[in-house]
Amino acid sequence: MSRAWRRFGPAQRAARWSVYVFIVAAIVASARAVEIVPEFLYDAPEQMQDLLRRMWPIAFHHYPAGVHDALVDTLHIASLGTILAVAMAVPVALLAARNVTPSRPVNYLARLLLVSSRSVNSLVWALLFVAVFGPGALAGTLAIAFRSIGFVGKLIGEALEEGNAGPVEALTAAGAPWLSVLAKGYWPQVEPSFWAVVLFRWDINVRESAVLGLVGAGGIGMALDTALNLFQWDRVAMVLFAIFCVVVVAEVLVTQIRKRVI
Amino acid sequence: MKVAAPSARDFRRNPLTAAAWLALAAYVAYACSRLDFTWARFVSGLDNGARFIARMLPPHIEQPDALLTGLAESLEIAVLASCLGILVSLPIGLAAARNLMPAWASWPARALIALCRSFHPVIVAILFVKAVGFGALAGILSLAVGSIGFIGKLFAEAIEEISLKQVEAVRATGAPFMSLVSYGVLPQVFSRFIGFATYQLDSNLRNSTMVGIVGAGGIGGTLFAAFQRFDYDFVCAILLCIIGMIMAGEVLAAWVRGVFLEHGKVEEE
Questions:
Q1: φ, ψ for residue A66 (rounded to 5)?
Q2: Options 1.10.10.60, 1.10.3720.10, 1.20.120.530, 3.40.50.1370; CATH of A57-260
Q3: Residues of A whose CB is below 8 A from B136
């Protein structure tokens, strides 16, 4: 009897094949069902050229009057939203971490909060808050904050759970009060990942806050929306250029801080 | 090792920390005043909020057809965008890896990836709606652009971290470049690739429900229209369906990861 070496067992192979079949089936089904108007596709190059021609030259003269304030607002929305999110996420993360809060129902409740925050897109949060607080930066800031709670809370909770129990036990044994255990036992262990998570989320929030204005939640998206509705493509190009610059600067800043400090 | 006895000084408040808290408080106060946040506005908002929630409940499906076609279209957009995005981003990610490629290939690829990453999919969708018209195609293309940025970057980083010994071994046998890639490089990055491909499918599913706001197909258009009609009970029903679909997508992604990875863990969000 010849025995050939195989990397995977029959069950593993069957599972892999079923994933492949499933992927192909999903792609074929989607490609057949999706509605694409071919007429639109034929003149796409023409439309693209037209778009670029209307966008050029970029309306730089529009920047001081129409873009600068909105851009600064966007940065404030992103930063304030991140601060608010961290303030709300830390307690939830403490409740969600199994080693900090030794109560399963509380853990699950906190996790449910985090998951529901993450499954709603920040644009949807913005729509909801615009309906509640009216159009403006308040809705945008709250949208950013509520979307970020889930992200920040989940990652900080995981960092807490991965912490070493030794220092915590030592503090508890010495009779340290609850707040001191948190501050001297857990905090030094999670500090690096805490700052990494906050910076990472701030970077994402800068990108996201740029679109919130499309649904009326303040910031540079409002300037973009106005320019789009008036078909002023040179101003649209100006806004896009401003967003691009801010996003690139934010990313470089975050990478540098992470490299130097954390 | 000698351990210094703790003195009272070790537990004194750090003046730098205090200054940082002060600076944070000052920033929050300044930003709030600049963005025109007032307590009165917040309180009146809470009032509105109560009325808003009352109008959202119970969720009511007004147009089942619109809801179903919207959800199906979002799903199709997510699947096709992920497929297209992954196919295009693999060669670009490979070209961007600085340990395998010369600088003339990696810099343009890195610039392209950076450009694709810097805009939110909804903004890219605006441009594609102008280029290819309203509908699902604009959504597919804009999400594919986002996927190129995301997967391209992570794929390039994964390749830059591989062990070059295996690559050298394959190269020493005289293998051509494509064999080098498929036998020396891809097996080393495959598990990470599965991780970010499933993550990307998940994230495309989330965003495919949103690009409809600017007319690029999917459930987002229905949602936005319902919002503008103040049809809040229908909004609530749509949101619940979207959340259900996203959670189902997460379960599916976890299944795929479980099949291909031993521990099913990914580093990303």
A1: -110, -20
A2: 1.10.3720.10
A3: 34-36
